[in-house]
Amino acid sequence: MLSASSSRTSARWGAKTLVRVGMLGAVAFALMYAEFNLPYFPVFLQYDPGDVPTVIGGFAMGPLAGAAIALVKGIIFLLSGKDEAGFLGTAANLACSLAFVLVAAVVYARVHSRRGALLGLGAGLVSMVAVMAVLNYFVFLPAYGIPPAAIPATLKTVTLFNLVKGTINSLITFAVYKKVSPLLHG
Fold it and tell me: Which of 24, 47, 154, 158 is most buried (CB neighbours < 10 A)?
């Protein structure tokens, strides 16, 4: 059953929403260039704040808009040639973004308050970490050529990294959402 908030959101899909989705997707992609290594993690795991605009868009315009922003970011990422892992890296990034933004935005749409934002970010974080743990174990790590014996240790490191990455993105989103949301509503 759709809530009143989500039905209002879907009714707003017009030229303005499409432009906002495209712009936030481009901003999310641009923020991917701000990547850096976090201490204590292997160099192949790099943090970037590219999911912040997806969640901001998901909060402001609904879960489908957040997913569309993640998709725009992923398409630009793939077409740019920036990802050394090609399609596989883009697929992992997109799965991670979608697991985070869809859950966070659905919760926020149902509990549209400061508390709802915190609950949404927490639920999105848990969803992202869980979904990526499963996908990394069964799909991504084997596809990257990680030997079966090394998958459990690698999975532990990658899962901890996803937890840290999601926490940082949640904190940034929570800190800036109310400041930038008027730009997306007005």
Answer: 24
